[in-house]
Amino acid sequence: METPDRPVAYYDGACPVCAREVAFWRARPGGEAIAWVDVSAPDAAPGPGLTRAAALARMHVRLPDGRLVAGARAFAVIWGAMPGFRRLGRLVGHPLVAPLAEAGYRGFLAVRRLWRRPSRAASA
Question: Which of 8, 33, 74, 111 is deepest in the core (most CB within 10 A)?
Fold first, then answer.
């Protein structure tokens, strides 16, 4: 597997909230420091160790060394790449805060399915 030179974020573009948030991050300074992959696209390939279903279920980031992080840890990586949000990334990644951030993210995931549109692969 070819290792990327920057983190790769896998997100669900069929989720309006997720798509809007990713559009916000992509447009910000530092957005180019992340490679963004919409796994709701029929041709999306999340790579080894990550199924499309898992990538659709929650945010994942593949680090340049090939490791995968998910959930709140993935957001910590993304925010860590963004000027003006690096402190937030460090805070969310802190061992004492990370479990609380993950609990909040899981709460979001519980209601997110109410907003999700059918994936483009299902409608193709």
Answer: 74
66-85 burial, b if ≥16 CB within 10 A, otherwise e? eebbbbbbbbbbbbbbbeeb
Contact between 21 and 49 under an 8 Å Cβ cutoff? The reply is no
Sign of CA dihedral 100, 36, 22, 32: positive
pLDDT one-digit tens code per residue, 35-88? 999 999 988 889 899 999 999 989 999 999 999 999 999 999 999 999 999 999
Query: Could you tell me the two tokens for 46?
Result: 């999340």
Q: Name beta bridge partners: 9.
A: 36, 61
E-only strand ranges, 2-118: 8-11, 35-38, 60-62, 68-70
Structure tokens at 113: 């399915």
Residue 82 near residue 28, CB atoms below 8 Å: yes
71, amino acid identity: G
The verdict on pTM exceeding 0.85 is: no
